[in-house]
Amino acid sequence: MKKQRNGTVEVDAAALNRLLAGLVAMRDGNFRRRLTVSGDGVMTEIAAVFNEVADRNLHLTGELARVRRVVGREGKLTERLETGACEGSWAAAIDASNELVDDLARPVSEVGRVLSAVADGDLEQR
């Protein structure tokens, strides 16, 4: 975008098309798409912010997949999602996911404790 002498703004159609393609990819769940950040001006700032949003979404989806694998398949019930550079709603989503893991792990751990006590001959555990 370039500001003209008469106060109007000239929009770079190619840059807007790249932004639109990136937004469509993000909407469809592709957080690996990046916009080129070069030069200065508002389009450069938009590209940088777009890339940061994509990075945060990619981080969140990666953390969800990692914790699902570690907790669900490896049985490490103490594993939690890392917040990283996420703030606001991203951090709230990570906190909510960690609380969900806590809520699911608690009864599993309790059952394991009771079964272990029963295996040791302590039939009074509840």
Helix percentage: 55-70%
**Major beta sheet, specifics?**
2 strands, antiparallel
Gap between N and C termini? 69 Å
Number of domains: 1
Q: Could you spell the SSE succession in H and E letters?
A: EEHHH
Which architecture per CATH? Up-down Bundle
Low-confidence stretches: none
Top CATH class: Mainly Alpha
Structural class call reads mainly alpha
Count of separate DSSP helical elements: 3
Mean of pLDDT: 88
Number of strand elements: 2
Strand order of the largest sheet: 1-2
In the CATH hierarchy, the third-tier topology is known as Four Helix Bundle (Hemerythrin (Met), subunit A)
Radius of gyration: 24 Å
- The gross shape turns out to be rod-shaped
Give a verbal description of the structure.
This protein has a single domain (2-119), classed as Four Helix Bundle (Hemerythrin (Met), subunit A) (Up-down Bundle). Strand 1 (2-3) and strand 2 form a beta hairpin. The model has no long low-confidence stretch (mean pLDDT 88). It is built from three helices and two strands. It starts with a strand and ends in a 7-residue tail after the last helix. Helix 1 runs parallel beside helix 2. It has helices at 13-27, 42-73, 88-119, and strands spanning 2-3, 9-10. It has a two-stranded antiparallel ribbon with strand order 1-2. It is mainly alpha-helical and 126 residues long.
